[in-house]
Amino acid sequence: MLLILTVLALVTRLAWALWLHPPGSYVFSDMGQYILRANTLVEEGFVWGQRHLAWQSFGTHYLIAAIFKVFGNEPPYTPVAIWYALFGAAAVPMSYVLACRVLPKAWMATTVGVVALLWYPNIANTGFFLSEAPFLLCQLLSTYWLVRVIQEGKRALPAGLISAVCFMLRPQSAIWFVFVLLTWIINVRRLPWVRWSHIVAIAIPLLGALYFSNWRFAKHTGYSGGVAESANMNLTAGRCHNIVTQAFKTQRQLDASVRARNTRNGRRVSVPGLRALGRLDPRHIAHLNPAMGHESIRFVGYIGDPEIHRELRKECFRRTGFIGQLRYTIGNISLQWFFARQWPDQEPSSRWVLPISDTYRYFFMVFVLLPSLVGMGIAIRRIRERPELAIIGLQILGSIIIAGIFFGDVRLRTPYDPYALILAILGWAWIVSAVRNWRRKRRS
Predict the structure, then answer these.
(1) How far apart are CA 307 and CA 329, in angstroms?
(2) Degrees (nearest 5) of the Cα angle 402, 55, 179?
(3) In this structure, is residue 295 part of a structural domain?
(4) Computed from CA positions of residues 296, 297, 303, 304, in that sequence, does the dihedral angle turn out positive or negative?
(5) Residue of 132, 258, 355, 378 with fewest CB within 10 Å of its CB?
(6) Alpha-helix runs per DSSP H in 72-155
(7) Sign of the CA dihedral with 302 first, then 305, 307, and 313 last
(8) Do residues 167 and 246 both lie within one domain?
(9) What is the number of structural domains in the chain?
(10) Same domain, 264 and 176
(11) Cα 69 to Cα 2: distance, rounded to the nearest angstrom
């Protein structure tokens, strides 16, 4: 089964990235910024003091720059497309072997492997130069090796190294590593084969990645305490529910934008997924209700300035109160499950695949969401009996917490889908068993 899944995954992902949806044909928005920064790194080296290079987390453009350095950086970036196909392909057998480690029956793991092979949301991400494809694979490797540490006391150093890469690709993954540490603390006496040397081997690369990320951030921005300045804007969007953020160099430019009702000028960044909440019934608990009364927040200054965003969020908290912020949190989480359509599939250049994307979105809602949440509850409740299964459940819990604080999106959720599939199998098994027991009791 492992060989079959690997071969089919390679064929499908290579066909997607080289023929059906080559990522080099979709270099715009975030994808364009990753390519731009990778080219800057290759051509100019590590030049500090350029604040725009601290806008996004750096792991993705460093990775693309490394491929550029070895294979060249000429459009349409075919070597990077091949690597992205390999990332996406390798995630399929990794999902299967991880499922074999934590699920009780072989058919369950086989089901996870087959569904992962056919899972379009993750196939789609191999067709865009984003963080999702490499993060998907690295996080699966990290999870698999950490499961082996818990089960056998082996592979601690590889787990630490790949976990550090995960953090550099997506800093929000740090919440899950904290959960893993807490899981070990809870079970420290039950896991005598996990020694302090294993914990140190895992922790040192992660702490090194954190230190380097903060040092690099300070070199570009002039202040420390961060990894990517986009986090400031994203947090404001999550707590103010503004779709667009516009920054201007002068008050005159800002006033002209207000008079013209122009939400597309200045230094502009948007969160298109939030528009989905605006289409809901005004009585719906998750309906978009911007704290500042408008879909755009405008200000004079740098778009990622932490002080400006801190004051904006303070004002949003004042205007909405606790109940308003709770509604925002519910709306943010619901975006990754119900309302948001997969981006960039919804962009004009990719709308030919939107029907496929929407089909999988509905499939997830009907067949995966509730059972996976049931499975998450089972896994976390058994944290003392099956800590290796609990950390799978904590992957989903971590993604829910991050979505609630910032905002959810199908694209941001998809690297966690393999864990949702594993937990959904557990959930369905529990549901079927519960129904059978109920029927037996009724007959008796």
Answers:
(1) 23
(2) 25
(3) yes
(4) negative
(5) 355
(6) 78-102, 106-118, 120-125, 132-152
(7) positive
(8) no
(9) 2
(10) no
(11) 33
Domain that holds residue 216: 2-220
Helix (H, G, I), strand (E, B) or coil at 405: helix
Q: What gap in Å lies between CA 102 and CA 239, rounded to an integer?
A: 37
Last residue within a domain, chosen from 220, 248, 277? 220
Of 70-84, 254-268, 294-308, 335-349, least confident by mean pLDDT is 335-349
Q: Are residues 300 and 172 in the same domain?
A: no
Distances (CA, A) of 143 to 87, 106, 195, 416: 16, 19, 18, 11
Determine the Cα–Cα distance for residues 165 and 281; give it in Å rounded to an integer: 42
Q: How many CA atoms lie within 13 A of 152 on its CB side?
A: 10
In a domain, 415, yes or no: no
Classify 383 in phi/psi space as left (phi over 0), alpha (psi -120 to 50) or beta.
alpha
Query: Which residue in the block uniquely carries the two structure tokens 């453009």?
Result: 61
Q: Are residues 126 and 31 in the same domain?
A: yes
Answer positive or negative: Cα dihedral of 412, 170, 95, 122: positive
pTM value is 0.96
Same domain for 196 and 97: yes
Phi, psi of 127 (to 5 degrees): -100, 10
pLDDT digits (tens, 9 = 90+) for 40-89: 999 999 999 999 999 999 999 999 999 999 999 999 999 999 999 999 99
User: Does 21 map to a domain?
Assistant: yes
Does residue 260 share a domain with residue 133?
Answer: no
Q: What is the pLDDT of residue 193?
A: 97
